[in-house]
């Protein structure tokens, strides 16, 4: 049994396609199929039921996957640890980030990190803070940048507070409030809002502030993308509450301080359970920059 055979099995299991698995592994399909058949012969079981149009895991294949995945992870970690002992960082780094990150210049940090550690493969995913924190706890991502209501802290991992800020009101340039130096939540309560989805941390910040002020509001548009929220505001369809750092200087937008507006805190979160050398090196890079 060879590690490469295990990689091929996991690729087929993830894609349910020998063709896509071969593309993922950068190998011709005939070679990948031959190696999986050889492994099945060695094990004495079929891992996949397959026809020309369909691929499924067999019961034996389903039972085989957890051990195969653990074996590959252990082998990869052993290689990373050996390289780290010589001062060379290898492996994979997975980063999660909210779409409204302002406390860190993430592209710049990644450019510096990749320059120092060219043998580390970096991937990233964007999501809401609750999902990203859960992914850190589950070991699916190494580090995450989160934005949470001022009264909430991430749980289940190590955290570093990066910044604390009050959101600003973003209104169309021709809006009746656009020339004000500052506003209160009551000035905005009757406006249609564009905001993040219900119960997401980005939305909860504003919902909590309106509730604390004993005010109600109408969220007419929901979006996960801050750029879409800004476009809705720019087209005169809504107003929004957003971090100042994500509001660009555009002729059709005006941003205003909100005296009693919501606050949020940005965090860096990671797991302290056996962090990889790549994760440790990235955290060290951020410690220098923040």
Shape: elongated
Report the end-to-end length measured between terminal Cα atoms.
46 Å
Number of domains: 3
The CATH architecture of the largest domain would be 3-Layer(aba) Sandwich
Number of distinct helices: 10
| Largest β sheet strand count, sense and barrel closure | 5 strands, mixed
By oligomeric state, this entry counts as: single chain
Structural class: alpha/beta
> Which range best describes the helical content: under 10%, 10-25%, 25-40%, 40-55%, 55-70% or over 70%?
40-55%
The radius of gyration computed from the alpha-carbon positions, rounded to a whole number of angstroms, is 24 Å
Overview in brief:
Pfam families: HTH_1 (PF00126), LysR_substrate (PF03466). The protein is an alpha/beta fold and 290 residues long.
Write the layout of secondary structure elements.
Elements: H1 3-15, H2 18-25, H3 29-43, E1 48-50, E2 55-57, H4 59-85, E3 91-97, H5 106-116, E4 120-126, H6 129-137, E5 143-149, E6 158-166, E7 168-172, H7 185-188, E8 192-195, H8 201-212, E9 218-222, H9 226-234, E10 240-242, E11 253-257, E12 263-270, H10 277-289
Parallel strand pairs: 3-4, 3-5, 8-9
Antiparallel strand pairs: 1-2, 5-12, 6-12, 7-10, 7-11
Helix pairs in contact: 1-2, 1-3, 1-4, 2-3, 5-10
């Amino acid at each position: 049994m060879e590690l490469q055979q295990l990689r091929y099995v996991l690729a087929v299991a993830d894609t349910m396609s020998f063709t896509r698995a071969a593309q993922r592994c950068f190998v011709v399909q005939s070679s990948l199929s031959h190696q999986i058949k050889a492994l099945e012969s060695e094990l004495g079981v079929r891992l996949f039921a397959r026809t020309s149009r369909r691929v499924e895991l067999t019961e034996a294949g389903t039972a085989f996957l957890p051990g195969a995945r653990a074996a590959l992870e252990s082998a990869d970690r052993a290689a990373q640890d050996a390289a780290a002992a010589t001062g060379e960082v290898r492996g994979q780094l997975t980063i999660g980030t909210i779409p409204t990150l302002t406390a860190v210049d993430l592209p710049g940090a990644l450019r510096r990190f990749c320059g120092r550690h060219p043998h580390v493969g970096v991937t990233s995913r964007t999501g809401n803070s609750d999902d990203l924190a859960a992914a850190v706890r589950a070991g699916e991502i190494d580090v995450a940048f989160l934005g949470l209501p001022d009264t909430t802290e991430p749980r289940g991992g190590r955290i570093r507070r990066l910044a604390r800020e009050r959101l600003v009101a973003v209104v169309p340039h021709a809006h009746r409030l656009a020339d004000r130096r500052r506003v209160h939540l009551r000035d905005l309560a009757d406006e249609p809002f564009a905001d993040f989805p219900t119960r997401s941390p980005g939305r909860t910040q504003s919902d909590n502030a309106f509730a604390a002020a004993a005010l109600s509001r109408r969220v007419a548009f929901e979006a996960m993308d801050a750029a879409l929220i800004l476009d809705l505001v720019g087209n005169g369809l809504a107003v929004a509450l957003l971090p100042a750092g994500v509001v660009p200087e555009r002729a059709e937008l005006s941003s205003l301080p909100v005296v009693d507006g919501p606050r949020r805190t940005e965090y860096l979160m990671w797991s302290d359970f056996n962090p990889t050398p790549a994760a440790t090196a990235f955290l060290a890079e951020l410690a220098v920059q923040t």
